[in-house]
Design goal:
Elements: E1 6-7, E2 12-13, H1 14-41, H2 47-74, E3 77-79, E4 82-83, H3 106-128, H4 134-157, H5 177-195, H6 211-229, H7 238-266, H8 271-285, H9 294-319, H10 327-345, H11 363-394, H12 401-406, H13 408-413
Antiparallel strand pairs: 1-2, 3-4
Helix pairs in contact: 1-2, 1-3, 1-6, 2-3, 2-4, 3-4, 3-5, 4-5, 4-11, 5-10, 5-11, 6-7, 6-8, 7-8, 7-9, 8-9, 8-10, 9-10, 10-11
Amino acid sequence: MGMSPVVASSGISAADTVWVLLGAALVMLMTPGLAFFYGGLVRRKNILSILMQCFMMLCVISLQWVFCGYSLSFGPDLSSVIGSLEWSMLKNVGMGPSEYAPTVPHTAFVIFQMMFAVITPALIIGAFAERMRFSAFVVFSLLWTTLVYDPVTHWVWGKGGFLGALGGMGAVDFAGGIVVHINAGMAALAAVIVLGKRKGFPDAISPPHNLPVAVLGAGLLWFGWFGFNAGSALAANHVAVNAFMNTHIAGATAGLVWSILDWLKFGKPTTLGMITGAVAGLAAVTPGAGYVDLSGAVWIGLFSGIICWLAVTALKAKYQYDDSLDAFGVHGVGGIWGTLAVGIWGTKAVNLAGVDGLIYGNPLQLWLQTKAVVITMLYSFIVSLVLFKVVDFVLGLRVNEHEEAIGLDLTQHREAGYTLLD
């Protein structure tokens, strides 16, 4: 006798549960993928520091999430800006359905969202790579997740949050354009301002030490992004299929566009440009993956390739800020564009739970998306700036010049990524 796919008494779907757990596993893989992506782009003396920082987020933020993070983000509404601690240590969170995902066990939803909480502070690493003390990084990341990521998650996705669709003003974010990418991108900009430039920037900074490793990381990110976006349907249904296709096509479009722009400007298409463009497109389609149709995904990918390329080349060159691995230029700018794009190309024809955007007769949605973008940008930037300043005052954020010259692998971890054998 086979097991029924649906348990009628609880409404739990076995198919949906498997899909959400698989999505969580895919999103978890994105953090090691990010470690390789970022690790290949730094100098060889700093690759282990990047890997260590990313894996530390897997450990520290996972524990923070079950201790208080999930409850602050999704718990019963304490106010429209934060959840209560009623679900801390997952108290009162069981295997029955929840209002957030009615066809999967509540704990499955917790696990899925945990992986988002893990990768978001890890994205910020790209801004301060090669110059931040490890102890300061851990303390900052824990504070930032609790005071920035958790509240913004509640605003957008929590029931009663003031920005979102569950009792708020009606801005939408399918899989994390606001919550993940704008949030991390603005913190990255704050990091750049507080920490300053690497010694010798830009002339004495060597190019990526291992592009094949970075390509491997980009591939793992792209693979994991299917869980990130299609998994956010929280069910094995047509919305997940649509999000999966949109994710892939936007990433492919932006990667192609970035390569063409490099070709036109520098005379050669570059591997670094291709993978950076693809990640920019994947970031940009995240807020609208389940709300736009295929043509919308193509436009989002096309413009993200152009806008993020301009941010990483022209904007960075003009203002000479040292966003080491372009966390702001790719994730921040990509997230901003993608969130606004939902207000343009969103259509209920692909998802009745979604929105109609500007070209489908609803200009108000673009205004709501714009308000959400501006509010999140200001909050994340200001609080992140303050947190960096506080951690700098208490612990000291930056390694000294001698440590920076030797590299963080040896000075922070007493290890070397590469050793020569006799």
